[in-house]
Each structure stands twice: as structure tokens, then as C-alpha cells.
Design a protein that fits this description.
This protein has about 350 residues and is an alpha+beta fold. The protein is built from 8 helices and 12 strands. InterPro entries: ADC_synthase, Anth_synth_I-like, Anth_synth_I_N.
């Protein structure tokens, strides 16, 4: 096949993928109801009935790929930039020449919102979530807060989206009623006593007015990610299950630990597009223009870190020395059936007694 025929075939395939993604219905969210300790991740995402403030939209807008031919001509690269956009802004943004219309669009959104997403779309055919995570989190920094979340449908099918993030701007850690808030941007640390630390998360999010972006995927795109432990039920039923009567904590684990991730990468496993998202929070002490320029530079650095590191170092081969077609052998119980039934009956009595 000639070079021109191969390129034409690649462009046709790309346009088919873009057309499919562009046909999705664009939707937006409303502020969400109060969350409870059962929440594990919440933030700038898609469904209005989910557990925190949210932003969503279709995966691609109708003008998202105005330069399809130009992008397709770089098909031989490990990753190809599709676009750098703010909301409905499609053309690529170079840091050396920020387009006036880009800032004007940002300024229009700032009139009604104080949290605005800047994002790039990149092809993820050869950029896996594991490789991207390795690019964002250095080997000597693996204990720092970060996450990689896969989605599964019906327990045995890979879901459409994969999410990853690192370097939260804020962390909230609760042990009992002691709450510690670490602001990594301001270098600030606050320790307070809260009756229900989960309400603290809500209070910290109340001032947000996120822009409802129609071009981001209809899924989680940034916000609070973390865990709420089993004992957080004590915050809800403090009269019946006070912290003072809890078993001694011999491991020093936090009851709640959430990080606010304003830098998130969302992999769409259907369209093979990765969304690199950076949320810009407006600051009264900075001008809109300087905030926009700083946000674009931050986004470009974040995206470049993944694309420049994608080929080095290569991942070592992993081996699985297990027969995955067979169920694992049943373990030996450490109690008898009679003792187990007795424990179960006692647990039911505890539940009835509150």
C-alpha cells in the first residue's frame, strides 16, 4: 500500500472515531445533595445526583477536531496531540502564542464560574494508564497521595473509563474528631475538632462554582478522591456509637483521608482518547490573564510529562505463575461451624440492640 493510501486510511479511521464520539448527547449537572461517609470519590464529575459538586459534558464537542488531517499526518508518533482546549475552544494552544479568543472564552466563563477546566486530548493507543501513572508518579515518590482507578461492568467486563491523578492540592485527614487540613499550595496546616468530618469536606467545597463543560467526558473529571473507613459510621450515630467506646487503634490509621485533585487524566477506553484536565481556581489576588497563562503552562507541563516519558524507561516484563483458569483452594477455617453460628447470632443481637 502506498504512503498516501495508508495516510488516507488512517484519516478515514480517525474521522469515523471522532464522528462516533461527537454524536453523544451533551449534558450538564446541578449541585448535588449532601454526601455521607459511604462516598469513596466525589468531585467534578458527571452525574448531578452524585455525592458532591460536579461538572460534566459530552466526550467531544462538534468542533473538537477541526484539524483532523493535520493530527492524522502525525500518526507515526507515540502519542499525537489532538487539541488543547478550554471548554468549547478547539484549536491547539502553544504557550508562546496564547490566542486572544482563548483568553476571551476563559474570561466569559469566569463571569459565572470560579473553577474552570483547561484540558488537552491526546491519543492513547500506545499510552496505557499504567504507563501514564508511572510518568506522573516517580519511583521514589510512590508513598505520596495518588490514585489509579479502573471501572468494571458486571464484575467481569472492563469499564469505559480509567482515572488517575497525583499531587493533590489539598488533603483532609480525620482521626476520631480531630481533622487536619493540609493545603499544599499555600503551605498551610490547620487542625480542628469536628463533630462530623464529612461535613468539613462539604464546607470546603461550598464556594465552588465550577464551569459545566460540555466537552469533557460524562464521568469523574477531578475533585475529592480518598476513603472513609468503617468507623466513620460513628459520626452518623454518635449517640449510640461514640468514638470514646471504639476499640483501641493500634495501627494509627486515619478514619478519613481525602485529597483534592485538580490535575486528573481520564482515559476513554472506547475512543482511545486521554483527557488531561487541570482545574483553574480563580484567585482574587491575581488577574484573570495571569491566571489563564499560568493554567495553560501548568496543563502543558502535565501533558508533556506523560508524552515525553512514554517510551522511556520500558516496562519490565511481568510473569504470572498461577493457573488463572482454576479457583484457588479453600482455606482452612480457624473456627468450627457451631462457633461461627454462635458468633452470627450474637452479631444479630448487637444489630437489634443498636
Amino acid at each position: 500500500m502506498s504512503h498516501s493510501a495508508s495516510l488516507a486510511s488512517g484519516i478515514s479511521s480517525l474521522q469515523t472515531r471522532v464522528a462516533s464520539a461527537s454524536s453523544r448527547t451533551q449534558r450538564c449537572v446541578e449541585p448535588s445533595p449532601r454526601c455521607r461517609p459511604v462516598a469513596a470519590a466525589m468531585g467534578l464529575h458527571t452525574e448531578g445526583r452524585s455525592s458532591a459538586v460536579g461538572v460534566r459534558g459530552s466526550a467531544m464537542g462538534p468542533r473538537a477536531f477541526q484539524k483532523v488531517t493535520k493530527s492524522a499526518s502525525r500518526i507515526g508518533r507515540k502519542t499525537a496531540q489532538v487539541t488543547c482546549a478550554i471548554a468549547d475552544q478547539a484549536p491547539a494552544v502553544e504557550m508562546s502564542e496564547l490566542p486572544d479568543e482563548g483568553f476571551e472564552a476563559f474570561k466569559a466563563k469566569a463571569a459565572t464560574s470560579n473553577l474552570i477546566p483547561l484540558f488537552e486530548r491526546i491519543f492513547s493507543d500506545q499510552l496505557t494508564p499504567v504507563v501514564a501513572y508511572g510518568c506522573l508518579v516517580k519511583e521514589d515518590d510512590r508513598e505520596a497521595p495518588s490514585f489509579l482507578l479502573e471501572s468494571v461492568v458486571n464484575g467481569d467486563q472492563s469499564g469505559r473509563y480509567t482515572y488517575l491523578g497525583a499531587r493533590p492540592s489539598v488533603e483532609m485527614v480525620a482521626q476520631g474528631n480531630k481533622v487536619t487540613v493540609l493545603d499544599h499550595v499555600k503551605g498551610d496546616r490547620q487542625v480542628t475538632t469536628e463533630e462530623d468530618p464529612m461535613i468539613k469536606l462539604e464546607d470546603m467545597s461550598k464556594a465552588w462554582k465550577p464551569y459545566k463543560c460540555p466537552e469533557l467526558p460524562e464521568t469523574f473529571c477531578g475533585g475529592w478522591v480518598g476513603y472513609a473507613g468503617y468507623d466513620t459510621v460513628r459520626y452518623v450515630y454518635s449517640s449510640k456509637l461514640p468514638n470514646e467506646k471504639a476499640a483501641e487503634d493500634d495501627r494509627g490509621l486515619a478514619d478519613i483521608h481525602f485529597g483534592l485533585y485538580k490535575d486528573v487524566v481520564v482515559f476513554d477506553n472506547v475512543t482511545k482518547i486521554a483527557y488531561v484536565v487541570h482545574w483553574v481556581e480563580l484567585d482574587d489576588d491575581a488577574t484573570l490573564e495571569s491566571t489563564y497563562v499560568a493554567g495553560c503552562k501548568h496543563l502543558r507541563t502535565l501533558s508533556k510529562r506523560m508524552q515525553d516519558t512514554v517510551v522511556v524507561p520500558p516496562l519490565p516484563a511481568g510473569k504470572v505463575n498461577l493457573d488463572l483458569s482454576k479457583r484457588p483452594a479453600l482455606g482452612k477455617s480457624n473456627t468450627t461451624k457451631e462457633k461461627f453460628m454462635e458468633m452470627l447470632a450474637q452479631a444479630k443481637e448487637y444489630i437489634l440492640a443498636g
